[in-house]
Amino acid sequence: MLGRLPSLRAFEAIVRCGNIAAAADELCVTEGAVSKHIKALEAELRAKLFIRVSRRNQPTPAGERLFQETRSAFALLRQAEQSFSHDLSNRPFVLAAPSTSLLRVIIPNARLIQEAIGDRPLQFVANDTHYGAVDASYSLSLRVEEVPDVSNMLLKLADEEFGLVISPLLLSSEANDPAHTLTHYNRLLPKDRPHIWENWVEESGVSLEPAENTIYFDEMYLALQGAEASLGPTIAPRPLVTEAIENNRLCAPFGFHQRKGAYFVIAPLETEMDPDFHRVGDVLTRMFKST
Which residues, other chains included, contact 241 with Cβ-Cβ below 8 Å and sequence gap of 6+? Predict the structure, then answer.
């Protein structure tokens, strides 16, 4: 197996990155070279290592077993490389999170994170991955899911709650029948959450009549901006609209209901002992639990 280190490296990168194209970019090689390494490794082990699922290369049971047995070794190699070239104070703290969480909660409070890590450089990465291994280049990754299926260190920030939000200019707090009033406005729907309205209606038990029209947005943060601009109501996670509700830019006429998921922060294996992970995790807990 020692003679297969380049193939093992390609295999480990595919599992972490999710697909061959992303692994090839990280390793600065062609997709064909990565595929060739995997074919050679599968022939050597006489086992299929991946299946294709919705644009992702998902490990088979044999692939998952190989990943668990090799990931720590590669993590230690990356840690050795990082500690050799940079000490902690000069290495940036890289915080990865879904784009909407970054824009609505984290970046507006970035000074609190910077205070927690002192003079250490701070970087943000938009990452909407909700499963799989954490990229080793991240110091901390924020995800929203039920329970992350990873062996890394986890900190739970807050439960996931959703609610309908709308500008107070469209719906006053004295409205006798907000559900009926909402039929006069467009529904705002983020394309990355195509079923969010149906899920909310089913889970909240609120009965809504069909809206006159739907306005589509590519991302949730754009739909939230549209709601604040009085284009209509949308469905939103509570932490992402807390500040807007407190400042009367939005209101939630039906309140919020809890879902099965939660907000977690995850550390790659090689940064589990990084004291700044815990400091930043504490800051993020206060941000997301301020609701």
Answer: 104, 163, 165, 224, 250, 252
Q: Specify the pLDDT at position 271.
A: 47
CATH code at 160-258? 3.40.190.10
Structure tokens at 212: 């006159």
**pLDDT tens digits, one per residue of 13-56:** 888 888 888 888 888 888 888 999 899 889 888 889 998 887 78
The structural architecture, per CATH, of the domain 2-85 is Orthogonal Bundle (1.10)
What is the third-level CATH fold of 93-159+261-289? Answer: D-Maltodextrin-Binding Protein; domain 2 (3.40.190)
> Residue 217 has which token pair?
């947005």
Give residue 82's pLDDT band: very low, low, confident or very high (50, 70, 90).
low
